[in-house]
Specification:
Length: 190
């Protein structure tokens, strides 16, 4: 099988899979993506190789990356992310930082983060989509978790969970660095 044939087959399989996971009819996906129903049928039947633009529109409408939509690996997948490939997303001059360790798009995005907050530092977050859940575990220091304006003390060795669809913030009001691991589960695109 040529690379192009393999790509066509994997796109057909993945488009069907993600459309099913999202509960989209052909018409619903066509409307969301701005792609004809007929084109989607041809893609799902592996009878055409759509343009990059069409593929991007479909990925966006499904709420997945184009890489996920084109992935042709089969069977159980393991993705090992080396330390030097984790993405530092936020930092301050004081030395506070967050690092996105790994994530997945299965059944809605799920992310795993490592946080370090220096004394006096903090980070605020706007509300996430309805249904977003955050779980965290503090391994050093004492975190002040503020959810919808209400502060909660989360000392080392303690875990917390909350719905992230309200304003929230993470603060270090103590004298030693706060270190924590956090997972964020975002609901699938409706």
């Amino acid at each position: 099988m040529s690379d192009l044939d393999q790509l066509t087959q994997s796109l057909a399989r993945n488009l069907k899979r993600w459309r099913g996971e999202r509960g989209f009819t052909l018409d619903a996906l066509a409307a969301r993506a701005g792609v004809s129903r007929g084109m989607i049928i041809q893609i799902e039947q592996a009878r055409t190789n759509p343009s990059v633009g069409t593929t991007v529109k479909l990925a966006d409408a499904l709420g997945v990356s184009i890489t996920t939509l084109l992935d042709y690996e089969q069977g159980p997948q393991v993705r090992v992310v080396p330390k030097d490939q984790a993405v530092r997303m936020w930092w301050t001059e004081a030395g506070s930082h967050t690092t996105l360790l790994v994530g997945t798009e299965e059944r809605g995005p799920l992310e795993l983060w490592a946080w370090r907050l220096e004394p006096g530092d903090g980070s605020a977050s706007d509300p996430h989509p309805q249904g977003t859940i955050e779980l965290l575990h503090v391994t050093a220091g004492e975190l002040t978790l503020v959810v919808d304006g209400v502060p909660h003390a989360v000392p080392a060795g303690t875990s917390a969970t909350f719905e992230g669809n309200v304003p929230h913030a993470y603060r270090n009001e103590g004298t030693e660095p706060v270190e924590m691991t956090m997972a964020v589960s975002i609901p699938p695109v409706p």
